[in-house]
Amino acid sequence: MVHNFKDPFLVERFLDLSQLLDLLLPITSVCSRWRNVAISTGKLWTLVIINPTRSAETESQIIKIFLERSANTSIIVHLVGPHDLASEYHPGFMQLFELALPHLGRCFVFRFDYLVEPMVYNIFPLPSMAILHTIFLFGKVPNASSVTLFEDPASYLRVKDLTIFGIPVTPFPQNTVSKLIISPYYTPEVWVLPFVESLP
């Protein structure tokens, strides 16, 4: 019976399940037809999670699968930062992120969870994120005196430039960012910015 569902119906059900990543890959194994429908539906593969806490080989394969299957579709890039010290101690994190770099032009939501105070490195070329719409930052917002996360902490409401783990983002005036959401575990008063509905 389930094998007789029309393709549009399957796509709708798959999209409902796409938020449950543990179910997304298994549905491609139900039968050859379901697999073909799932693989050819780019919207199913738009959440690209980069997590260095998992096996590097497995993580690399998953990232490549999602980037390939979401081709020509806008994507959400979700970085899960290192759990100790700084990015220089996690070359695997950088190697995994490099897989996504050529695809950042398709990124409309950028989410970064980091569990430690980040350090800034000039490692990557300036990526183009022309359709960037929303940025989520979760974790410890660094003290402005020790790390420059934003270009100018005194005018961070304008958010002209953003550097995350050495990844400079194209200046926002050239983009269409409409939301900046910061949800830190702790936040010095100067950095209190729970939600910005619209950026100038």
Key structural traits:
five-stranded parallel sheet, globular, about 200 residues, alpha/beta, disordered C terminus, 2 domains, 5 helices, two-stranded antiparallel sheet, single chain
Tell me what you see in this structure.
There is one protein chain. Helices cover 24% and strands 18% of the residues. With 200 residues, the chain is α/β, with parallel strands linked by helices. It has 2 domains: 1-42; 46-191, no CATH class. Mean pLDDT is 62; it is low at 84-89, 116-126, 140-178 and 182-200. Strand 5 (162-164) and strand 6 (167-169) form a beta hairpin. The termini are far apart. The strands form 2 sheets. Strands 1-2-3-4-7 form a 5-stranded parallel beta sheet. Strands 5-6 form a two-stranded antiparallel sheet.
Report the sheet with the most strands, covering strand number, pairing sense and barrel closure.
Answer: 5 strands, parallel
Strand content: 15-25%
Instruction: Return the domain count.
Output: 2
Query: What order do the helices and strands follow?
Result: HHHEHEHEEEEE
Shape: globular
Count of helices?
Answer: 5
Number of strand segments: 7
Structural class: alpha/beta
Radius of gyration: 18 Å
- Fraction in helix: 10-25%
Name the average pLDDT: 62
- Residue ranges: pLDDT <50 for 5 or more in a row? 84-89, 116-126, 140-178, 182-200
Termini Cα gap: 53 Å
- Provide the spatial order of strands within the biggest beta sheet: 1-2-3-4-7
